[in-house]
Design a protein that fits this description.
The protein is an alpha/beta fold and 205 residues long. The chain has a single domain, classed as Toll/interleukin-1 receptor homology (TIR) domain (Rossmann fold, 3-Layer(aba) Sandwich), CATH 3.40.50. α3 packs parallel to α8 and α4 packs parallel to α6. The N and C termini lie far apart (54 Å).
């Protein structure tokens, strides 16, 4: 059940505290301020991980298309295992992908919450990385008990009034995916600094 109270100032305050804690982790790692973070994009390719339920593969594919703009702009590569099926064993490849990622996206839905695989393996590994300063961005695909899972974090996408609206309730639905993309872009720009333009328009080749 969608809890619209999670967009209240109280949750915003909790989210701000989470950001402060994560920034403290960055400082302990030697990143003393956000002003240093744009250099990360220029030095190496960032890594991202997308966690989603097998039943939400269509939603994953659609969001993945919208995320290509973010991959190009921020020099980040999002990884997800397209071959995961119910009952599959915890894969070292998945564990390694989570371990090397700095940004994690979770596609929240009833199927996501109902997945033993995600709760037994992926979420604990992602949570451990977030304790070291990684970013987790929850995207609400369908109405579900998402606040029970990631209630302390700011979920998305939100509409123009700042209200959380699951992707599948946007009309047309593509606007929901693009709103999620826009808000993920904004969060990454706040963390890593604004991306550079992809082309030096007007410059001589």
């Amino acid at each position: 059940m969608l809890n619209r109270e999670d967009s209240t100032p109280q949750v915003t305050l909790v989210h701000a505290k989470v950001v402060i804690i994560l920034e403290a982790n960055f400082r302990r790692a030697g990143l003393h301020s956000r002003s240093m973070m744009p250099g990360i994009i220029g030095l190496k390719m960032l890594k991202g991980f997308i966690s989603y339920a097998h039943a939400d593969h269509a939603a994953f594919k659609e969001l993945r298309t919208h995320l290509r703009a973010i991959e190009r702009a921020f020099r980040i590569e999002f990884w997800a295992d397209r071959r995961i099926n119910p009952g599959d064993y915890w894969s070292k490849e998945i564990a390694d992908a989570i371990e090397t990622a700095q940004v994690h996206i979770a596609l929240l839905s009833p199927a996501f919450i109902g997945s033993d695989y995600i709760f037994d393996h992926e979420l604990p590994a992602i949570n451990a990385k977030c304790g070291k300063g990684d970013m987790l961005l929850p995207v609400i695909v369908d109405r579900c008990a998402w606040s029970w899972v990631v209630g302390v974090l700011q979920a998305l996408p939100t509409d123009h009034a700042g209200r959380l609206l699951p992707v599948h309730e946007w009309r047309p639905r593509g606007h929901g995916y693009d709103a999620a993309r826009e808000q993920i872009w904004s969060s990454m720009a706040n963390r890593f600094g604004p991306p550079k333009g992809i082309f030096p328009w007007g410059a001589s080749p």
